[in-house]
Amino acid sequence: MDELKKFFLLIWKYRLVVVIVPLLTIMVTFFIVRNLPDVYWSEAQIATGIVDETQQMSFTDDAMLQDSRINQKFINMIEVMRSKSMLTLVSYKLIIHDLTAKPFKPKSPLLKELNEDAIKHAIDVFRDKYQKKESLNLRDPDQNGLYSVLRSMEYDDESIKSSLGVYRLGATDFINLDYTSESPDLSAFVVNTLSDEFTNYYTTLVKANQRSSVKFLENLLNQKSDTLQNRIANLRSYKINNRILNLNEQSSQIMTQSADYEFRIQQAEKDIISYRGAIANIDKRFDPQDRKYFESTLTDINQNILSTRAEIHSLYDKYVQNDFDESYKKSIDSLQRVITSQINSQSDKYIYNPLNTKQDLVQQKLNLQLQLDLATYGLNSLKRHLNFIGRKFDNLVPHEAVIQSFDRNIETVSKEYQDLLTQYNQIKMESEFPIKLRQTLVAMPGLAQPSKKMLLVLLSGIISGAFCLLVFFVIFYLDDRIRRPMELAAATQIPVLGYLNLVGKRTLDLKGIWKNLHGTAEMKEFKKQLRSTRFEVNKELALSGNRGSILNITSIGEGEGKTLIAACIAYTYVMVSKKVLLVDGNFDHSSVTENSNTKLFIEDYLKTGEIPGADFNAGIMVMGNRGGDKSLFELADEKIIKERLDELKTIFDVIIVETPPLESLNKAKEWILFSDKTLSVFQADQSITAAKKQHIHYLSTINGKFIGWVLNKVKPEGKVTEQIELATVVE
Known about the structure:
Helix content: 55-70%
GO cellular component, one term: plasma membrane
CATH superfamily of the largest domain: P-loop containing nucleotide triphosphate hydrolases
Number of helices: 24
Transmembrane segments: 12-33, 454-478
Radius of gyration: 63 Å
Number of domains: 4
Shape: elongated
GO molecular function: protein tyrosine kinase activity
Coiled coil: 403-430
Keywords: Coiled coil, Membrane, Transmembrane, Transmembrane helix
C-alpha cells in the first residue's frame, strides 16, 4: 500500500506531463484525421454446402464429418480466397474496368501519364494474364511497370488484402466476404468479383479432381479385378490337380470317421477282456476228465462251427472296410443264427458224462468263444482301417496350408476390390452432381460507414496517457533512491535515529526556531524533528557512561549536510543547558569554521593544549581549523591527540566533531579512532551504490561505535520544495 501511495505521489508530481502529453496527442491526431475520406462497406456471402444437410447426398459421408475436418475445410477455402493468385485476378478485373469504363476512384498520377497506346497495351496484357490465370513477371521491365500502375491505384493484391475480410459466420455453412473502400461501387465490385472467381475456380478444381479420381480408380479397379481372377484361377487349378473338392468337408469327414473307429476299438477291447474273463470262469468249473471227454466227442461239430466262424470273419472284415454297410450286417446276423443252430444241435446229443449235468455251461462257453473270436478279429480290422484313415488325413495337411494361403490372398484382394469399388461408385456419382458452392448474397453499394475520426482521436489520447503512466511506472519501478527513514533502515539494516526535512531557506536561524520566532508549519515540524533526533542521540551517548562523550558526525559523500546536522544537534544540547564543543575536523571543507568566525583552531590546541575562554557555564564553543590538505595525524601523534581530547572531555558535556566524508578514507577514520560514538548523515533522494555499500560495511564493523543514521533533506510528502546545497547557521 505504501508503494502504491508513492507511485501516486510521483504521478501527482508530474501531473502536468500526464495531462499535457495526451492533449497534444489528441490535437495532432485531430489535424491528421480531419480530412480522411468517408469509407463504404459491402458484404457478400457464399454457401459451401459442407454442413448444410439439405445439400448432402445420401451416399456420401459428409454429414458425418468431424468438427476438426469441417474447420480444416473452411480454413482451406478461406486461405484460397485470400491467396495471391485469387486476389491477382480481382486486381486485373479492377484495372481493366478503370481503363475501359468510368473508374471507381480518381486516376493516380502514374496512370494519367499513360498515352492511348500505352493504355491499349496495358489492357491487352492484363486481359491476357487474366485469361491465363498468371501473375505479372516482375523481372520483365514492361510487366514490372504495369505492376507499378496497379500499386499506384492500390489495386495490387496486398492493398486489396489489407481492406478485405473473409471469415466463417459462426458455426454455420456460410463464408462472409466484406471490403471497405472510399467508393461504394468499388467495395461491391471487389467482393462480388472475388466470389465469382473463387466459385469458378473451386468448381473447376473440384470437377477436375473428381474426373482424375474416377479415371485413377477405374484403372486401379481393373488391375485389382484381374489380380482377383488370376488368384481364383490358381486356386481352382490346384484343387483339380490334387483331386480336392472341399478340403474342409473332407477333413471333417475323416475326423468323424477317426473318432468313430477309435470308439469302436475301445468297445472291442472292452468286450475281449470281458469275454476272456467269462470263459476262464466257465473252464474252472470243469475237471480235466470232463473236458477230455467233452473235447473228444465234439470234434466233428467243432469243425462245422469253425467253418461258419471263418465265413463270419470274412464278412465282418468287409463290413468294416465298407464303413459298416447294413447289407453285410444282415449276412453276418444270418451266419450267427446258423452257428447258433449248430451249437444247439450238439446239445441234442448225449455227449456228456452221465455223472455231469453241465449242458448250460457248455452252451455258454461256446457262445462266448464265438463272440471273443469275432471281437478279436474285428479289433484288428478296426486298427488297420484307422491307420489307413490317419495316412489319408496326413496327406491332406500340406494341401490345407497351400489352400489357406490361396484363400487369404483372394480375401485380401477381394476386400481391396470392394473398397475401391465403393469409392469409385461414390466419386462417380458425385461427379455427376453439380457443385454445392454458390453465392447466396450479392454485394450492393452500401452507405457511408460511421466516421471513426473521433474514435481515433479518443484512442490517441487514451493510448498516449497510458503510455505516460507506463513510462512513469517503469521509472518508479527502476528507481531505488532512498527517500524515507524506513527505506534507509531496510536497505542498510542499520537503525535511523532521525530525519530532517528539506527547508526552503538559505539561512537557518536556530535561535529563532527555539524562541518560536518562526511560527510557520515548516519550522515547527523541523523543530520537532530536531528534538526527536537529539533524544535518540543522547540515549546512545548515555550508554557510553562518560561525561564529555565525543560524537563524530560524518557522511559517505561530500555535501550531504553534516555541517547543518552538527550545528542543529549542538544547539539542541544548548537548549538543555549543556556545554557543547563543536569541532570542525573537515580540513578540506571548513564550513563550520567559515560560518562561526571562531578564533580557536584545532591546530593550535593540539600544540599548546590551551583553550582561551573555556570557563563559560553553558553554550556552544566552536573549534575551527585553518584548512588545507592535511589529516589529524599530521598535526600530532596519537598519544598527544588522545591526551588533548581527554582534557576536553573534562571541560565540556558533549564534544561534536564534524569529520571529513568517508570518501576521503583515512581522514575520516583517524577521527573515528578517538570518538565514543559515530553518527552518519545520509542525504535523501540518492541510491546506495556498490562504493557506498563498502563504506556502510565499514561503519557496521567499528566495534559498536556507529549508532545509526540521520536522514537529511527529506522532501515532505505532497510538496515540492526547492533543494538547498547548504543552510547557513545563524546563532
